[in-house]
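ok trying again, last paste got cut off:
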Amino acid sequence: MNTKPEGIIPFDYEFATGYTKDRKDGHSPIGRTNRLRNTFLDGEFRINSERALLVTEAYKMFEDEPIILKRAKVLKYLLENLTVYTYAEELIVGQAAAPNKHAAVFPEFSYDWVIEEMEHAPFEDREFDNMLIDDQTKEDLRSIADYWKGKTLMEKVVDQLDFDHKKASNLGNGLYFLNLYLFGGVGHYVLNYERLLADGYVGTIAKLDAKLATLTVDTDEYNTILAMKITIEGAIAYANRYAEAYEALAANETDATVKAEQETIASNLRACATRAPQNTWEAMQLVHISTMILMVDSNGHSISYGRYDQYLYPFYENDMKNGTFTKEFVQEIIESAYIKMGTPTKLRDALTAFANTGRGFGGESLTVGGVKRDGSDATNDLTMMMIDATAHTRMMVPWTCVRFHENTPNELKVKAFSAIKSGCGHPKVFGDKAAIEAQVRAGKSLEEARDYAVVGCVEITSPGKEFGWHDAAYFNNVKVFELAMNDGRCMFPLEQSIVPAGERIGVASGDLSTFKSIEEAKEAYVMQLEYFTGLMADSLNVMDNAHRELVPTPFTSTFFDNCVETATDMTAGGCEFNHTGPQGSGIGTIADSLAVIDTLVFKEKTHTGEQLLNALRNNWEGDEKLFALVNSTKIPHFGNDDDYADEFAKFAFDSYCAAIEKHTNPRGGTYQPGVYGVSSNVIFGMLTGPTIDGRKCAEPISDNMGAVHTSGGSHDHQGPTAIANSVTKMDHARATNGTLLNWKFNPTSVSGKTGTENLITLQDTYFNQGGMHSQYNIMSSETMRDAFENPDNYRDMLVRVAGYSAYFVELSVPLQLDLIARTELSFE
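nice, full thing came through this time. structure:
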């Protein structure tokens, strides 16, 4: 066997650069892959009521049980009764409580909005993320509405939030958004897949039985372990039910090849139910069906696959040695699995759908590459094959993440950037240097830190050890800055505000007309920042307690090491690491605003603070010369390797991190700052008045770690190296919940081997200087504008939004326009 890592195609194979239209034959050399992908694209996104009806039945049946046993028995009831769906040509099978591209409904988390939107803002009529729903499904959902009144997680949380918390959150002025874990489950974790594959379900039950034998009956600890066992019994039933379905198909199949496949699929599922897996196909099937059950158990998005190339490699290596499968067939299984991973979808409330457009279940990241626990390079055949699968399938998920370190083979870098250049937005790239340091700062051992995986957009976690509440909330730093410059008041009061117009929302901090130095402006910002991050942490802790009390997750907890050892559910603090990770947005906007204030008011003294405030009160109308000035190169801007401007970005970054780091959560963990906002910069901009950097009211704020781009022009004008230098002046490892940087290149500027080498050099520079994450759109603004105007011609054009990929034509119009407006870079 060749020991040099390689895929089924050469590492330096050049995919077409940028989006390629009219590829109805697909992008894979494997016909099955292309057919499955086309079937997916041709299908419709729909809402399914079966889970909602069954979970209501189960809650009534187990009404008087302790909550941990109730949740376990409810899940087992679902797995024993949900319809089992089979599909032609799939090699990896199993659903998340609904057919392919159908969204199940989770009424125990939140439900009033489902009925409200169904009746008054129909899901099928949404401009974006529309979901079809038939009359019978509507009637089903109406039929259970009365039962869930007063019983949902959301109602419990809202009842416990006081006026100040509501005024600041998405329930009021939108300084922070709680909607993800207010409306649904937490997710954002990676279970211990190595242990799952080593023990299987039957081995797991044996360990739970051994633990039960040490505990006193009817105690909380006993009930927790018993609940775990009940859910594993449900998982076994689910696997057996799928096996029966495929055995029935095989019995009636006349095509010998198809029959043999169906029989093997059934055998793989029986293996899930009876023993640990013995080959790659069995292992991948167990991973998949277990992950689907995680979604049914927790309703969490960004339930991620962890280091897929690492824990599957022993099976692959053995199969290659024994001739069990060919490498080409393993590639076919991987690509089938990738398409299957993309079939679950999630019904989201209108606000969440607008802020994070895209109709996948959400955030199933898959990590490859990096280093092993001992620090040696982890690249193997599967690493390369999984990147090939990314370029061949071009699905919204999985969100493939490739880890680079100082000794990453050049072959992996070339293959990764060849896939990136294909214009599909995958994979995203992570730097081990900063990520591992961040993990150590978060309390992990060096070995644990090296074994990190990515969940969701950019968050890093310890598989099987950490319940990090990553993506816990989105925080609008720019709105806070607006209040800081206006004595705690909104520049333009929002219609939905529960605070009367003109009244103070924040604390009294003075306004720009009274500040005598830039330090006073910065102090006012920090004062408001600490007030609102405190309110956010309080609100998140209320939600944290509500999840523990109402929706524990015994199946998921089974595969987190410390939970079994301590007989504690993960929602109650059973994991070894229990963090909470909210993320802040708008670093670039704050940096450039401070640069304007310091330059014009305190250094050059050409303008007063009152003049700047008046320009904002008029949304820059009548101040066109000043508007042009603050958007011009006459003002130092973040993103151009200008130490003066970049120091303000560092201040904004460090201030947010410091404000977050001081808080603790009910699970005994700390708060971890993330400095990114995914695509929330668009909706945050809509909730924020005009800003001093030259942004008009309702325009997007700066995205993630990136520079400002406004209707007055992009503020980064010195090219990609200058951006890398500016962004890495901040200490990325301090943002232990992650950072995010978007790059957008014109395809012609990165074509060919020279383009690949330039991208690798840029990425190496960025990571060597301490950057943590990068993701790329290799697509011109011209192509995006054409897709905007002619969406029917671009139905499968994937773009990297911010942490996730989605089909461009399915994004909300403001988000499409924001992508078009991002600075288009080149190496010329």
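cool. Residues 518-550 form the longest helix (33 residues). The mean pLDDT is 95.
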